[in-house]
Amino acid sequence: MDILQIAQRYELVKFALDERLRRLLPAVEAKVFGRGGITAVAGATGVSRRAIHAGLKELESSQSVNVTATSRIRRPGAGRKNAIEIDMTLESDLEGLIEPETRGDPESPLRWTCKSLRTLADELGKMGHKVSHTHVGKLLIKLGYSLQGNKKTLEGSGHPDRNAQFEHINIQVTDQLNKGEPVISVDTKKKELIGRFKNNGRTWCPKGKPTEVKVHDFIEDSGRANPYGVYDIGADEGWVSVGTDHDTAAFAVQTIRRWWLVAGSQTYPNAKELLITADGGGSNGGRVRLWKLELQGLANEIGIPIQVCHYPPGTSKWNKIEHRLFSFITMNWRGKPLISHEVMLNLIANTKTKTGLSVKVELDNREYPKGIKVSDAAFAAINLKRNDFHGEWNYSVSPNDIL
Fold first, then answer.
1. Consecutive 10-residue runs of the chain (403 residues): their mean pLDDT?
2. pTM of the predicted structure, to 2 decimals
3. Are 35 and 19 in contact (CB under 8 A)?
4. Distance of CA 323 to the CA centre of its chain
């Protein structure tokens, strides 16, 4: 038999052969060749004599039929052993690196580092394990791990009267709305940089022509904008003052004052009391003395008591203004750089919803210095009445001529 023909046949079909057929085909050629066939075929094909001998045994044994029937390439038990079968401590050591806190190991080398597959493989190597980064990934999936980001689910420290305060606020708001009295939700929206900076979100643009913005978010001469909002729950209307100075209690109350003068007094000409719901921190925080002092001035001007209910710590997202006004403003300007105050004002003013939300907005260029102290005498002069239930969260400020 021509050795060259054997080599040509094997070369033509080699690309389609799996591990088993690379044994069997040379074995067939060797068997047909006869005496000296193993040596001749090994030289023509490059397949080792050992592999050809194994192929001949498969051809001669009844096991080859069973292997074909089950579509196996190797006999049961053949092939390289799994890493965890050879290395019994590999899994436990890998889990110890992933979750050092639960393992009680504050000295873990990966406690303060990025736990990438390559880093994990390197650390396992230092511990005496021979494993590649790709196999580490397979092991992590087998152990029930996956790539995950952070999830926002924690809301404060869980005050024992949290739900009771929610119920109190709900009762007060419902009662005021049933009486036709004004109820507003107030808060400061996230401060925004004014300029050609990236604004999260996407918007429709010509293909391949995204809006170009600056690489770095370094504050410019145009500065920041502080949007403070008032949401009228009963009328489904919003008011936003865009401040250019500091976000202080004076700025917060001035925004409420502007809302009342422009919109509130017209919507509620016969109002007997104003109810404000606010979160527990920031410029309208329950512990901020200036907030209460400014409310006293506002109550004196509008001539009606102002009742305030604060949400418990860590629950500001429950405030109506967050999901009935601010969320829609954010959606309306997604993907649009706030290149000027005028652009910001127009985007806020044109925020609409299917429920009929309308928003009025104005720019407030006045200065609101920080660090203003309220003396004990000035604070004592505030006509403040605390509620029997959590007076630090629930209180009212009445005009000074009302005792």
1. 84 86 89 88 90 88 52 58 67 77 51 75 89 88 80 67 92 96 95 85 76 74 88 96 95 97 96 95 93 97 96 88 93 87 94 92 95 95 95 95 63
2. 0.65
3. no
4. 17
